[in-house]
Amino acid sequence: MTRQFLTVSISLAALAAATAARADTTLTIESWRNDDLATWQEQIIPAFEKEHPDIKVVFSPSAPTEYDAALGAKLDAGSAGDLIACRPFDKSLQLFQKKQLTDLSKLSGMENFSAISKTAWSTDDGSQTFCVPMAAVLHGFMYNETAFQELGIQVPKTEDEFFAALDKIKADGRYVPMAMGTKDQWEAATMGYQNIGPNYWKGEDGRKALIEGKEKLTDAAWTKPYETLAKWNGYLGDGFEAQTYPDSQNLFTLGRAAIYPAGSWEIATFEKQADFKIGAFKPPVQKAGDTCYISDHPDIALGLNAASPNKAAAETFLSWVASPAFADIYGNALPGFFPLNEKPIELKNDLAKEIVGWRNDCQRTIRSTYQILSRGTPNLENETWTESANVINKSETPEQAAEKLQKGLDAWYKPGQPTPVAAPAK
């Protein structure tokens, strides 16, 4: 009897110790999204901990501009958190190739994401995925509904209707037709070329053809968006060449511009600042009846630090991040950051619902320069910023810009040959 009691006592003690050890499990999340701290602390983490009271989670963000360097130093020193917010494409791929991120291909919940949703956090051949996709941002146009009503303008669906609307706004004179500057350059590419371009190069078909060398940036599908972009010059207002990104944001939210070439990340900020109702429309197609394409670009994911001492708990959290429950919380707490989960969720923000609804109408693609094509020198993404601004400024023709971009790509990129990712900067 004594021996049996002793065995039971030891078993209970072992169980209690194991339970206590598990109860003490704390996961730390590294991220650059310090703006989201309250959302994680007040909504996301409590929802998870309610289901998993034995796992505690701490969201520990860095300043966005410091994140990459700080994370690299922590990973190299072995002091990084258990969970790593993943940038899209090469920055995270570098960490995976250094064996600092874990292969999550077989993680429970990964079946909830399409191949294109996982592209930004997968190896070039798609065989391994190392981060759980969290959200994407969509591109299109936002507009001042009051201005459109005053001027009797219908939401444009084709490019002819789009430019007719711009002409009407310009002729009236009360509003700058479209708020975008070229001083910072990246908007010209991101909200200009990458916004309207997919309708010309047919989204994923064209993007993949460019990677495979079957198409070139000098082909009509890639130069014609620049011809359209050059026409924006007459509608951006006086001095747009010296206008910064914050200038453009203010021009629109103060009600002085009617249209804003947009990324969906603007939703929450714009709705807080503007005293008018904001509407949105997708990039107009070239002619009625054309298939529409949208830039639905992956923005953020979450990976597992390969050196984490809490892998089981971390995988439990990541499987939850891959669930519709997380997508529902995240998508509604941060309108404009759209979950990549294929399981449908109901968004509550009207503008966010309108924009994400384009996924049902249009073919989805990602920015053409992000996968593989910006690994060399000159960097195609950065060069596209410059050339897009030059085309809008009319300091270069669309043909000159395309030739320069293709020449730069030809200098280092050989389609069909392995294109290694550069080692992470120290």
UniProtKB/TrEMBL annotation:
- Localization: Periplasm
Pfam families, sorted = SBP_bac_1 (PF01547)
Q: What are the record's GO terms for cellular component?
A: periplasmic space
Q: Tell me which InterPro entries the record gives.
A: Bact_solute-bd_prot1 (IPR050490), SBP (IPR006059), SBP_1_CS (IPR006061)
Any GO BP: transmembrane transport
| Keyword field | Periplasm, Signal, Sugar transport, Transport
| Family from the record | Belongs to the bacterial solute-binding protein 1 family.
* Function in brief: Part of a binding-protein-dependent transport system for a sugar.
Name of the protein = Probable sugar-binding periplasmic protein
Please name the source species: Plantimonas leprariae
